Amino acid sequence: MIQSSIVKRLLVALWGIPLLLWATYRGGLAFELLIGGISLLGLAEYYKLQEGLGLKPLKYTGFGSGLAVIIAWAMGGGGVVWVMAGAFLFASIITTLQVRSHKDIVATFAGIAYIPFLVGTFLFIRLGHFAGSEYLVDGKWVALCIWGAIWMTDSAAYGGGKAFGKHRIAPDISPKKTLEGFIFGFLGAMLFVVVLYYLGKISLDVALAVGIGAGVFGQIGDLIESKLKRDANVKDAGEKLPGHGGILDRFDSLLVTAPAVALYLVVKYNFLNGSGH
After folding, report:
1. What is the CB neighbour count within 10 angstroms for residue 93?
2. pTM for this one?
3. Is 277 among the domain residues?
């Protein structure tokens, strides 16, 4: 049974990793479709988890709003706040007219904020729109670095936790997560980004931001998704990726890593570097 799961994971990785790297390197429509697909499929899984808790999120409102959020990010991010405000207002009106619980509004909007809004920051990073409408850096290598740092974090955390893990950090949420694994994951991420820096693909400060984003915030993102599954009493968020679970199971770290890195880049190019020049 364990060997079968490993084989399934490897088969998904054989086509999944090249696809992610190709779309990220190419950018444009290919990358936008990738992020849009991750967002909407992940949102569907989130709403299913909420339905398991007895809630009734407005799924079509969520999908439409989520798509609008992704489009806003793809256009530079300037209209994202207004799209989010409109989504909340629309969900509130529909829920009130249908005499549904206010908790359904929260579930609907929380899904939009948690998945399309957060993962959409990865589009923002790839575009390089860190200071207004100007392309200041090549976001391609920052985005590729994020993928690598996340994967290195996962591998190092698993290996380090398996070999040395003793102190559990969240036994009620994810019993297998240990402090030792967390530390190994962080070190793995930092090692990866430093190597990429020495290869001349990314500046040192951005490399460190990505390393901290993946090595610390990414692992916290994993725990957040584990809490969602624990509340819904399910093992995996979905079954779309055999051996890996669902979209949320595979991209939970990205949901927190990308916005953390994007926030650093915005601060760097808008405040620390003046106008970005």
Report:
1. 12
2. 0.88
3. no
